[in-house]
Amino acid sequence: MSKQQKLLLRFLAEPPVKDFRWDDFVTMMDRLGFDLEETSGGSSHKFFVLRSDADKVIHTHRPHPGGILWAKQIRDVRERLAEWGVI
Known about the structure:
By secondary structure, the protein is α+β, with helices and mostly antiparallel strands. Strand 2 and strand 3 form a beta hairpin. Strands 1-2-3 form a three-stranded antiparallel β-sheet, with helices on one face. The protein is globular and about 35 Å long. Helices cover about 40% and strands about 20% of the residues. The chain contains three helices and three strands. The model has no long low-confidence stretch (mean pLDDT about 90). It starts with a helix and ends with a helix. It comes from Aromatoleum evansii. This is HicA protein.
């Protein structure tokens, strides 16, 4: 099983894992076809744009200081990805 598959399985685990790192999330989203876009000014607000459909955007917040995603973030992103048929 590839690292990407393992990341996706961890991300899809129910209940959400409590140690999913931001860097792993960015890697997973890239492999799913999303580009990370950042707002100006060093804000922690980020958004992921689907390469094949620029109208599909996921807005999120880079968690800090620990860099671990919150369970609500994971649930919200999973819901959106499933709705769009990405996962």
